[in-house]
Specification:
This protein is α+β, with helices and mostly antiparallel strands. Helices cover 42% and strands 20% of the residues.
Length: 864
């Protein structure tokens, strides 16, 4: 039985037999609430007499007709495949089926808005879920044209990749079988797309609110722009900002790529219960609905939306116009969009310090991922779809983008973009592999990139750079070298192009006085350019953040950073110091309590919202996992008190004030701290400029629930005031955070043992389950977690299973004396050597988090 997996070898074999031409897909969305009608006509060529299969995941298949010959459904349908034998040179296949609506964020997701009971649908097909909607050769290299026809309630809006042909045709007046308002039924027919991969096709349907603009492409075409959201969110949709960013991105990319926007329109749709940040469907990009801001959010979140908008727009060229042949090159698809979106954000929007955000957020993600036992080369070996599903990680996105940034510096930006333009011109509407991309860069730069590719793309691991310097009695540098340390598991010495910066105090500010750019290679690289200079107060290796490498500070520089970190004039070097301090903490080189002190002493001076966001996350991780258990309670209480004091002292209405209040609420545990939360929630105490809006009310209430100071009645009252989808998610998290054994058991059962929760409620429940002040509440679930793993993986969809495997792993109990989490994990791994590789990978990664936590705790315990 093939199940739902597909191997790379099978895909290659199928591509050697089949060449797809066109799909005509007809969907009837009026037959809910559990299934919809799907009718697919596929035209394709094949090796005469050959056999292959087409993909379809559907509860019922009614008809399969190949070249006019009706096939016996029971004979040809097996799991997710329909067997096709005795093919002709030119073939036409008709498949009629009932497909299932999903509530997992995969396939065609169905959502009912609790505000008005309206139904909203959207598709999510990457990696391989278009087969949940229509019959398809589900692999990226079998491109074809697509023509969609959709029947739906007449009052809906229906969007696909290409514009609709004329007005919707009313086919049945006054009848609606979908459970919505009785307003009749209509049919939308859409223009045929160019040749694209199935995973970037899309259907979005429902009574979406739409706002329309347009722009002029460099080739003179008028490109319609649409921005969509649910009707109940329309008042919060800031269309002008979204369109302004989109226009800036269009201009930037068309100039950089030398190719006009390749599709006929560009719609951006904010959809409910979306699993990721966004998806690059050609001409119909879907976004996480949280990017429609109904309450005040940190500027970091607004910047993240801008980067995401530009990331998906970059995919219209890199990924949609030119597509990877197989998922081995997923990294290039995502890394290129990640690099380009950061570059465009920095050069074409108000977030001119986007590379600081990239360093703090993305590169920290990459460094963390690259030190896991599951780390892999950027060019990963994707043997099958299960490998791909767990590979949307920090290597694929952030490390790849970091390495591309370094490549641009090495070959030259003009030469890099000349190669990119040649690549698009040569491979438009086709499929490529990494070698195709490198070939164009080699031609324009004159450099042989095979050695670079071998070291950076085909080998895993991250190196560590340390400065080694000696100074004479007069404070003059007598020797300076950069040491490159490599991990034992991946002992690869790589060349780096980087800069070394020297910073001195001037009028109380740390100002750069020395800047030396050089290439380093090998275990030790001498830096003669610094010999003979006065030793700066602070020395920073990788100043400017060109290199992809972990960095340490020498003892004097670290002391200067602790004392003067808030005095840098530029946010990037300050962020590099933060990163170095955090990495040393994670590696157990410096005590976690020192990092906590560093953050609490200096965070009020941080000017970059995204850096504040990252630091507060790191602060929580340090307190929860890295501080020695003997000191944890006192440190947590002191940290929460300090966060509240900083919030009270912060500028009224500032971004930092909001973030500090949220962080304090998440950590409040003592009677006095919970009193302060209650006073904020009830309005008995106020902070000037701080508005207790709906989302912040939920955060404050959940803090009280976690602390045992509020319960089900309070949650129900707040939900009555906020009877929205966001309110339902917040209530689910709050209920799971109730500090009782019964509440935890109820949450566990709803997530692990039952299948009724939609993806967004599942994720919220998992998040609330882990919120505890008394960790003993989680101990009873350690054994059930490991007992359930294989069943969860087999019975639930990939997204839902991953949420459980990662989200419910008992990392919080790493040091609990009553349970041996590390031992239990090892016992499961030893006892399940044949478990799916993707599942084992997730468990191994979680295990590493426990191992690292225990090592960091030992280092913290040794603190003087």
């Amino acid at each position: 039985m093939p199940g739902e997996n597909l191997t790379r070898a099978e895909a290659r074999e199928r591509a050697s037999v089949v060449a797809t031409e066109s799909y005509e897909v007809e969907l009837d969305l009026t037959t809910g609430p559990t299934t919809f009608a799907s009718r697919t006509r596929v035209r394709f060529t094949a090796t005469p007499g050959a056999s292959t299969f087409i993909d379809l995941v559907a509860p019922t298949v009614h008809e399969v007709t190949l070249n006019g010959r009706s096939l016996v459904v029971a004979d040809v349908v097996d799991d997710s495949r329909i067997q096709l034998d005795d093919l002709a040179a030119s073939n036409e296949l008709l498949v009629v089926a009932d497909a299932a609506y999903m509530n997992t964020g995969e396939g065609l997701h169905r959502f009912v808005d609790p505000v008005d009971d309206e139904v909203y649908l959207y598709s999510q097909f990457e990696v391989a879920d278009s087969r949940r909607v229509f019959a398809v050769f589900e692999q990226p290299d079998l491109k074809a044209t697509f023509t969609f026809t959709v029947t739906a309630p007449a009052h809906w809006t229906v969007v696909s990749n290409y514009p609709q042909l004329g007005m919707p045709q009313v086919v049945e007046d006054g009848v609606n079988r979908n459970g919505g308002v009785d307003k009749g039924t209509a049919t939308w027919t859409f223009e045929t797309t160019p040749r694209i991969s199935s995973y970037i096709t899309a259907v979005i349907a429902g009574p979406y609110h739409a706002e329309h603009r347009e722009l002029t492409s460099q080739d003179g075409r008028t490109i319609p722009l649409g921005v969509y959201c649910r009707g109940s969110l329309a008042e919060h949709l800031d269309t002008d900002n979204i369109v302004d960013l989109t226009r800036a991105g269009f201009d930037f990319y068309e100039r950089a790529f030398g190719v006009a926007y390749p599709f006929a329109k560009y719609d951006q749709l904010f959809v409910p219960e979306f699993n990721a940040g966004a998806m690059e469907n050609a001409g119909a990009v879907t976004f996480l609905e949280s990017y429609v801001f109904r309450s005040k959010v940190p500027d970091a979140t607004i910047e993240r939306r801008a980067v995401t908008i530009l990331h998906e727009l970059a995919h219209m060229w890199f990924g949609d116009l030119v597509t990877m042949r197989w998922w081995d090159d997923l990294w290039l698809n995502e890394s290129f969009a990640e690099y380009m979106s950061t570059l465009a954000t920095a050069e074409a929007t108000r977030w001119t310090s986007a590379w600081t955000t990239f360093s703090s957020l993305e590169k920290n993600w990459a460094y963390r991922q690259d030190q896991l036992p599951s780390t892999h080369p950027i060019v990963a070996d994707m043997r099958d779809l299960e490998d791909v599903e767990v590979n949307f990680d920090g290597i694929t996105y952030a490390k790849g983008a970091s390495v591309l940034k370094q490549l641009v510096s090495w070959v030259g930006q003009d030469e890099f973009f000349a190669g990119v333009r040649a690549y698009f011109a040569k491979h438009a509407w086709g499929n490529t592999e990494l070698r195709d991309f490198l070939t164009e860069l080699e031609t324009t730069s004159g450099r042989d990139l095979s050695a670079w590719s071998g070291l950076w793309l085909e080998k895993a691991g991250v190196t560590l750079l340390r400065p080694e310097l000696e100074v004479d009695d007069a404070g003059v540098i007598t020797s300076f070298a950069v040491l490159q340390e490599v991990p034992d598991e991946h002992p690869v010495q790589r060349p780096h192009r980087l800069a070394i910066g020297g910073y001195d105090l001037s009028d109380g500010r740390l100002v750069r006085t020395v800047h030396v750019e050089l290439d380093i290679d090998g275990a030790r690289t001498e830096v003669p350019a610094l010999v003979g200079l006065p030793r700066p107060t602070l020395v920073l290796v990788n100043d400017g953040d060109l290199a992809y490498a972990k960095v340490r500070l020498d003892a004097q520089s670290l002391a200067a950073a602790v004392e003067h970190l808030g005095t840098f004039d530029d946010s990037l070097p300050r962020t590099l110091v933060w990163t170095a301090a955090w990495d040393a903490t994670r590696d157990g080189e410096t005590p976690a309590r020192d990092f906590v002190d560093l953050v609490l002493k200096n965070i009020s001076h941080e000017t970059d919202s995204s850096v504040v966001l990252v630091l507060l996350r790191q602060l929580s991780t340090a307190l929860d996992l890295y501080v020695a258990p003997e000191h944890r309670s006192a440190k947590e209480i002191a940290a929460a008190d300090r966060l509240l004091a900083l919030a009270r002292a912060a500028e009224a209405g500032s971004d930092t004030q909001l973030q500090l209040v949220k962080s304090f609420a998440g950590r409040a545990a003592t009677t006095e701290q919970l009193d302060a939360v209650r006073d904020l929630l009830d309005g008995h105490a106020t902070l000037e400029g701080l508005s207790i809006d709906t989302d912040l009310r939920w955060e404050l209430l959940t803090s009280l629930v976690t602390g045992g100071r509020a319960g089900d009645a309070d949650i129900a009252a707040q939900l009555a005031d906020d009877a929205t989808a966001t309110g339902q998610r917040a209530a689910a998290a709050a209920r799971a955070a109730v500090p009782t054994a019964d509440a935890k058991a109820t949450a566990w059962t709803s997530v692990v043992d039952q299948d009724g929760l939609p993806n967004a409620i599942q994720a919220a429940t998992i998040a609330g389950f882990g919120r505890v002040h008394d960790r003993s509440l989680l101990v009873p679930f350690v054994t059930p977690y490991f007992d359930a793993l294989e069943t969860v993986w087999a019975d639930k969809t990939n997204e839902m299973a991953q949420n459980i495997v990662v989200g419910l792993y008992p990392t919080e109990l790493a040091d609990d004396a009553s349970v041996d989490v590390l031992g239990a994990t090892d016992a499961w791994l030893d006892g399940h050597p044949d478990a799916p590789s993707a599942l084992r990978r997730l468990v191994l990664e979680s295990r590493d988090g426990v191992r690292r936590a225990l090592a960091a705790q030992e280092a913290d315990l040794r603190r003087a």
